[in-house]
Amino acid sequence: MRVKITSKDGLILVDIQKDFLPGGALPVPEGNKVIEPANRYIEIFTKAKAPIFATRDWHPENHISFKENGGIWPKHCVQNTEGARFADNLKLPPEVFIINKGDRAEFDAYSGFQGTILENLLRERGVKRIFVGGLATDYCVLNTVLGGLNLGFQVFWLSDASKGITPEGEQRARNLMLNGGAIELTLSDLEF
Ligand code: VGL
Ligand code: ZN
What we know:
This protein is α/β, with parallel strands linked by helices. The protein has a single domain (3-191), classed as Isochorismatase-like (Rossmann fold), CATH 3.40.50.850. The chain has 4 helices and 8 strands, in the order E-E-H-E-E-H-E-H-E-H-E-E. The strands form 2 sheets. Strands 4-3-2-5-6-7 form a 6-stranded parallel β-sheet, with helices on both faces. It has a two-stranded parallel sheet with strand order 1-8. It is globular. The structure holds pyrazine-2-carboxylic acid and zinc ion (ZN). Pfam families: Isochorismatase. GO terms for molecular function: metal ion binding; nicotinamidase activity. Belongs to the isochorismatase family. It comes from Aquifex aeolicus.
């Protein structure tokens, strides 16, 4: 497939944060492998003057998704902690839009659209196609892709810039995204 990025496209990098990398509180196996491809996408979208969004899991200390509060996850991505920071070598440009999610104690949000202004920002800029990758494929990437499809965006899933928590989860997510109408894309599909 040949796709040319224009200023009406949007790049959405999901939760490329330290806690989701090896050594973090909720590590995605090989999560660090998404960073290099993500940096390439950032370069390409920057050259095309296309907007770039970076979501981050941004939980309060007492968040419901944490085991200690009855949830299923170890404590992760607590607001303003080291683990919530973006990966050190992720080259986010100064113009990046940072989207906080899951920032209220009583609600979790796997989708970057849930409880955020992401949709508004995309619509304001006339974005029709979104390109989504990051961590983790089986949770927040999946839900952001499905959320985008639901809102009527054409959605490309960046499989070379995404990693899942488990192989089964990854496979299931892939099927759900593609059956839902998302298109799988890698750097080699982009035309310059
Ligand atoms: C995520 C589990 C819990 C994710 C966030 O970013 O995929 N997964 N919180
Ligand atoms: Zn979370």
